[in-house]
Amino acid sequence: MLVVGDDMKTNIRGVNVNYIQYGEGKDILLLHGWGQNIQMMKYLGDYFCDRFRITILDFPGFGESDEPSNPWTLNDYVLLLEELVRKLKIKKPIVMGHSFGGRVAIKYSADHPIEKLVLFGSPCIRLQKKLPLTTRILKKLKTLPGLDQIGEYMKKYIGSRDYKAASPIMRQTLVEVVNEDLSSYAKKIEEPTLLIWGDHDDEAPVEEAKLLEGIMYDAALIVLPGTHYAYIENLLQVVSILNQFI
Q1: How far is 53 from 26, CA to CA, in rounded Å?
Q2: Spatial separation of the C-alpha atoms in residues 26 and 54, rounded to whole Å
Q3: pTM of this prediction?
């Protein structure tokens, strides 16, 4: 299925934001993950535009949207989403988010009217993980006299793939947006919530999804075979599940 939506731009909080909007009906708002763009969520949107109005944006720093002039926090992205929803007259949307987009969706949905929420591999509860040996050694070395410059070495060689690929501003933004535990916001969401996870998701382990399901008011977890991108790897099955949910 191929559906064409024209890219449009709007200025929000001093940033030119690229988005597409197509279809008719109740609103579905699709939020992509870190390092991704509109196309990663359009795979889903194209299956629902015959019954819903689909809105997808490139988050600032990704796709065709401008990069922020300063590092942003997760709250900055939520404020941007709030203004975009208001500008585009989106009413009580069904919000779907993958990974980072799901984190934005959780914080947004806690304090704004939504119809339903769908999260794909979205880290929320930050479980303490033991650092790899190389990381622990380098962190220890950094504390020794005369070795404080090793920090840049650490960032270059042992940082995450997303961190290495990002510009300096987006690197700092990544640090800001990934460390916040969103449990208190997830607990506030009363609308029906569907959690769709891959059983081999290394970025957002299923264990975290089970904890998230347990603290939310009305949430159900579906685990599918796949990785952090299980929603695409099982696209037709996910579409079938969503058709029943929404």
Answers
A1: 6
A2: 9
A3: 0.84
